[in-house]
Amino acid sequence: MTAQKLDGVATAAAIKAELTARVEVLRGQGVVPGLATVLVGDDPASQNYVRMKHRDCQQVGIASIQVELPADATAAQVEEAIRGLNEDPACTGYIVQLPIPKHLDENWALSLIDPDKDADGLHPINLGRLVLNEPATLPCTPRGIVELVRRHGIDWRGAEVVVVGRGITVGRPLGLILTRRSENATVTLCHTGTRDLTDHTRRADIVVAAAGVPGMVTASMIREGAVCIDVGVSRVDGKTVGDLALDVWDKAAWVTPNPGGVGPMTRAMLLSNVVDRAEALVASRG
Ligand SMILES: Nc1nc(=O)c2c([nH]1)NC[C@@H]1CN(c3ccc(C(=O)N[C@@H](CCC(=O)O)C(=O)O)cc3)C=[N+]21
User: Fold this and answer.
1) How far apart are the C-alpha atoms of 190 and 154, rounded to whole Å?
2) Which member of 7, 16, 97, 243 is catalytic?
3) Residues 177 and 103 in one domain
4) Domain termination site, one of 100, 132, 164
5) Quick check: CB of 113 below 6 Å from ligand 1?
6) What is residue 285's predicted lDDT score, i.e. its pLDDT?
7) 235 SS3 class
8) Which terminal residue of the chain has fewer beta carbons within 10 Å of its beta carbon, N or C?
9) In the prediction, which pLDDT does 7 show?
């Protein structure tokens, strides 16, 4: 028996249709949501992601602004670009595409973003709000995972969830989101220091593989009928390879394809964050 597909492409398309209607309403209210991206350097994968995000914007009627800086940009240049977007009324939300070149500090760059325009939910104020159970813009990938699972009729409530990976963009915030009352999952956050990973994953109803190690979660590590979410994006011989081994499809009940699972959902949630931010702007104007 082969697992059912958690279809990120179809789910993202449904979300985009909902967002298109909300963007229409906003335009009627005189607000055009605008997403900006700050890309530092010329990494081809990052250029590709940014290109896809702008194409998505076009599909739902969000305006988009592309800011590009050279790989050797100074901290002052990055700061100037970010301050410019904070002040630009055409930009209602934006992201600094990660990673940025090593001579620049990622947390420093994120901290310069106006928290009200933080489309990635990675500003320390928004991460702090998440920890404090206050309304916050949420990071796109964790939000996409929660939504993808929920829209396939799978309940997070009471589920035993094992997240593999403690990164700032996925694992750590996902643990915080899933343990809120509204999701009510029980989460075990595993990482490279975990003594016996299989001991944890075998007990999980839902396994989220977000370690960035190709094929690291195999069928022998999961329970029959588990739900498996693949967040990994590694390049092997020019092909995208996830963190799930292919044999999980023979044992799990539900699996995210990769590509075609979490990636498109991440992009849909970025759009969703931008629309949310623009609606908040209208509400604050009264
Ligand atoms: N500030 C910031 N925010 C991010 O959200 C962010 C980032 N930096 N840096 C890099 C990662 C990676 N990421 C992906 C988004 C979509 C796909 C995606 O849509 N992938 C397609 C395939 C893409 C292809 O054809 O290569 C899929 O999975 O089907 C993948 C990866 C967002 N990230």
Assistant:
1) 22
2) 97
3) no
4) 132
5) no
6) 86
7) strand
8) C
9) 98
* The two three-digit tokens of residue 251, written as one number: 């044992």
Concerning whether 97 is annotated as a catalytic residue, the answer is yes
The enclosing domain of 249 has a CATH number of 3.40.50.720
Per residue in 25-38, pLDDT (tens digit) is 999 999 999 999 99
Chain-centroid distance of CA 254 in Å reads 20
Does the beta carbon of 97 lie inside 6 Å of ligand 1? yes
**Pair of tokens at residue 216:** 């690291």
- Residue 108 lies inside a defined structural domain of this protein: yes
In angstroms, rounded to a whole number, what is the distance separating the alpha carbons of residues 244 and 264? 17
Separation of 12 CA from ligand 1 center, angstroms?
Answer: 13
Q: Is the CB of 98 within 6 Å of ligand 1?
A: yes
CATH number, domain with residue 61: 3.40.50.10860
261 labelled as ligand-binding?
Answer: no
Q: Which residue has the tokens 């179809």?
A: 10
Q: Is ligand 1 within 6 A of the CB of residue 260?
A: yes
Please give the mean pLDDT across all residues of the chain.
97
| CA 18 to each of CA 14, 56, 105, 123: distance values in angstroms, whole numbers, following the listed order | 7, 13, 36, 26
Please check whether residue 283 lies inside any domain of the structure.
Answer: no
Please state the separation of Cα 3 from the chain's center in Å: 24
2 assigned to some structural domain? no
One domain, residues 125 and 148: no
Which residue is catalytic, options 53, 117, 243, 276?
Answer: 53
Domain count for the chain, please give it. 2
Which domain covers residue 32, as residue numbers? 28-132
User: Does 16 map to a domain?
Assistant: no
Tens digit of each residue's pLDDT (9 = 90 or more) over 91-116: 999 999 999 999 999 999 999 999 99
Closest residue by Cα to atom 24, ligand 1, is 259
ipTM higher than the 0.85 cut: yes
Based on the domain organization, do 251 and 150 belong to the same domain?
yes
Q: Is 180 annotated as a binding residue?
A: no
Degrees, nearest 5: CA angle 235-138-66: 60
